[in-house]
Write a structure and sequence with these properties.
Length: 176
Amino acid sequence: MLLASGTAIGIALTGGASAAVSPGTTPAESTSTSAPPATTSPGTPASRCAKIVNQALDSGHDKLAARLHAFCTRPLLRLALVGGEHGQVTFRGKAGPRTVAFERGTVESDNNNTTIQVQAADGTTWTWDITTSTVIRQDGSKVGANALGDGERVFVGGTVANGGNDALLIRIAASS
């Protein structure tokens, strides 16, 4: 379903996630200016999302289509936009179930850029492994693990593997 109202376009996806994207903002992970038309099996949430992207492309909204495409294809971006303090979600993937975790909070300790402990506002503390696949962003740019320090406000998202949390994305919040 595509809803248009002034400058905002909202999309609703099955699975309980919804978000609004304003053409004046750029999601952190969306760098493309046009989205390729997507094709998937009819009736799946991905095919409904592809239909929305194609409708935006057909109406000449290439930048919006790119942002919607990024939203539809990146589960960590969807989790970052949904809000919340921490949680885990299991998605059905091509190779079987895939569990993704996220946490929004404050870095409590940084262990030589290999792990960080993040404490959410409710006191929950999780340890996250920093791997070679971890992307750390600050002010929209990629930065190294040395940018993380105690007291930094962060959003961390990644996969749950072998009982641990592998950080795939760490977004450092802007200083207030």
